Amino acid sequence: MAMQLILGASSSSSLEVASKKFDVFIDFCGEDTRSKFTSHLNEALKRSGVRTFVDDSELEKGDEISSALIKAIEESDASIVIFSKDYASSK
């Protein structure tokens, strides 16, 4: 529950929180930040005991978002969006 307050996520029932698979879904533009900021943030969160989801596949512009990715988003308590130079033009 403390993670929800820190990240500003809306409060949920304890049953709903217990069913979540990830604490945080990290959304980013791969080519801009994957091997730099995003990987460092992900590792720091993991060391702190936060269950994260980072999509390792690279979507090309126009590709459909997979059902597995949509499910990961739904199974996360909160999202961190990393805005970068090309974020707005990425899939």
TrEMBL record:
* TIR domain segment(s): 20-91
Could you identify this protein by its name?
Disease resistance protein (TIR-NBS-LRR class)
Give the species this sequence originates from: Medicago truncatula
Q: Does the keyword Ubl conjugation apply?
A: no
Q: Name one Pfam family in it.
A: TIR
Q: What is an annotated GO biological process for this record, any one?
A: signal transduction
Protein keywords: NAD
* Entry keyword Acetylation: no
**Entry's transmembrane regions:** none
Q: Which residues form the signal peptide?
A: none
Q: PANTHER family recorded for this chain?
A: DISEASE RESISTANCE PROTEIN (TIR-NBS-LRR CLASS), TMV RESISTANCE PROTEIN N-LIKE
Q: GO CC annotation: what is one?
A: nucleus
